[in-house]
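May I ask for an example protein's residues together with how it folds?

___
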Amino acid sequence: MFDTGNTGFMLVATSLVMLMTPGLAFFYGGLVGRKNVLAIMLQSFVSLGWTTVLWVVCGYSLCFSGDIGGIIGNFDMAFLNGVTPDKVFSTGSIPLLVFVSYQMMFAIITPALITGAFTNRVRFPAYMIFLTVWLLFVYFPMVHMVWGGGFLQKWGVLDFAGGIVVHAIAGMAALASVFFVGKRSFIESGPHSIPLVALGTGLLWFGWYGFNAGSELQVDQITATAFLNTDIAASFAAVTWLVVEWMREKKPKFLGLLTGSIAGLATITPAAGYVSPQSSIVIGICAGLVCYLAINLKKKLDWDDALDVWGVHGVGGTLGVLMLGLLGSTRINPSGADGLLFGGGAFFLKELVAVAGASLYAFVFTYFSLIVINRITPVKVSRTEEESGLDKSLHGEEAYMDV
């Protein structure tokens, strides 16, 4: 029956991943101006509720029940039909209920990541429609293809905790949304609360141990490897970012350290359980450098990705998948694959094709879905609403009462 140790661990891991969504809300909330704090935080918190509804109604079933063309599941387990307390999920001998809950937390945070790109510009009704269709037509199929028995999984594509399924597709969707909504009319002076960003970073970093180590779905040596690799990559990326920015701007920046850590966390995610701790050092350094350069490129190209979702999550997730294709080792995880540096050229190509294809699909679908949504209800706020701040103009609330 059930393994109580594995079950207890997975319940803790599920709780940690749940905590990441409020952590993201604080992270994004600190980065925006005082007049838009509640609007951006609401977009994260509402996913806790609405994504759960969709997950119960059809999301879990579309991800993990049956198979239609290797692309999507079926509706056999809609409304969690057949998910009973006595059902065992084979890996780790945990209750199926725990696996359903764990995967639900991934579904909750993934679309919330996108919101940082179009902050201060999108109306709430349009966001709710977008949240719904993006989950149904991007996230759920991608989960099925990579983790739920779809064609990418059968082809041999690996993604330990969501480099493709979470970060790459969210980052590319963010970039597409930026191209659609255009630039902000009123650019804020900068983050209104770096301490709030630090709080969010701490919660995200803490939750990421459940995100990565929990993806083993049981307690063993791979769990410990993924846990350690998560911290190593985050730390090396944070320090790399700090040093590079310090050299360029002549001052050490706290915000840079925080952003670098998130870049490292996103980059190690697909590889956490498949590479050695030594490889995670390389991945962390590359994450800090490449994501920093990506954000500077974004600035030169004048893309108004307000909170650098593409540069951190899109580039970081994609880089992590490619680094897995280079540095993966069956000596670390026999269930994994050898990367290019260990003779696995075919595996590297599979990872490259998978992340490129998934990213392209996420970008194209997001852009055209926003065109359709805009015909139903306006996507972009008015100039007056943007100038007043979305907290007051859209929600009638204020985070801070001026005295």
